[in-house]
Amino acid sequence: MPIRHSEAIVLRTYRVGEADKVVVFLTREHGKIQGLAKGARRPRSRFGGSLEIGTELDLTFFEKESRELVSVDRCDIIRSGFPSSGDPFLACTLAYFADLVDSFAPEREPNVKLYRLLRACANSLIGGGEPTRVTPYFEAWVLRLGGFYPTAESCSTCGETLDRQGAHYVIEEQRLRCARCAQKTKTAKTAADGLSLAPATLRYLKQIWQRPPDELPAPETTSVLAELSPLHRKLIAQQLDKELPSLQVLDDLIRLEKKP
């Protein structure tokens, strides 16, 4: 039974038996894995608070070919996700990020870019980053790394640069058209299934592709984030064919905070 080490981030935990936990990790070297942490629910567990969602660890585990679950041996904390638990909004946002990664990442397929993305965005949140700005950044990159994001800079019909006059994304066709071509080919179905993106939104997306989350400037207008949110939600729902429970909780919390 070989022993392995890897940097890892906790995505999810499940209770097993009277004292154990199954933990889902995103690891740098081995991708997403599931491990059994024996005794993790005992008051004096050696794991302590290391298995909180969003915590980054130096993980030591054993694995056997005939077993799906690895055996978790040590979890030495690199960066704790615990500080965010005092703020419900931050905790729910971090849980949503972990839920997205758990839903999109296949088992045992290393993806260093996805690991770095989750680490950078979790660090940004815990360090005081604005969740309403970090969230569309994270969603955009998770979708792009999975190959599900429309990243073309020119119209698929006429070749016009999109950020000059805006664009229309037709969900069913999975492509971007400039506003002029979208208007020419507009039908009741494409209008219902598509979403319009203003030039400012397309310019902001360029910033997302070029900068880390902590260096992302404020959007030109409040409508930028208002346009990105429904686009990302449709793309995510299209790929997962479901709505994530953590997103529902986050949306409910946002609505409560907006009430006078």
Walkthrough of the structure:
- The protein is built from 8 helices and 8 strands.
- It is an alpha+beta fold and 260 residues long.
- The chain folds into 2 domains: 3-80, Nucleic acid-binding proteins (OB fold (Dihydrolipoamide Acetyltransferase, E2P), Beta Barrel); 137-258, no CATH class.
- A hairpin with a 3-residue loop joins β2 and β3.
- α1 (88-104) packs antiparallel against α8.
- The longest helix is centred in the last third of the chain and has 18 residues, at 223-240.
- It is elongated and about 65 Å long.
- The N and C termini lie far apart (58 Å).
Quaternary organization? single chain
Number of strands: 8
Sum up the overall morphology in one term. Answer: elongated
Q: Span from first to last CA?
A: 58 Å
H and E string: EEEEEHHHEEHHEHHH
Sheet with most strands: 5 strands, mixed, barrel
Give start-end ranges of low-pLDDT stretches: 188-192
Mean pLDDT: 89
Strand order of the largest sheet: 1-2-3-5-4
Gyration radius, rounded:
20 Å
Short description:
By secondary structure, this protein is α+β, with helices and mostly antiparallel strands.
Question: What attributes characterize this protein structure?
Answer:
OB fold (Dihydrolipoamide Acetyltransferase, E2P), 5-stranded mixed β-barrel, alpha+beta, 8 strands, 260 residues, elongated, 2 domains, 8 helices, single chain, 3-stranded antiparallel sheet, 40% helix
List strands and helices in order, with pairings.
Elements lengths: L2 E14 L3 E8 L3 E7 L18 E7 L7 E10 L8 H17 L7 H15 L4 H15 L21 E4 L4 E4 H6 L3 H6 E4 L1 H12 L12 H18 L4 H14 L2
Parallel strand pairs: 3-5
Antiparallel strand pairs: 1-2, 1-4, 2-3, 4-5, 6-7, 6-8
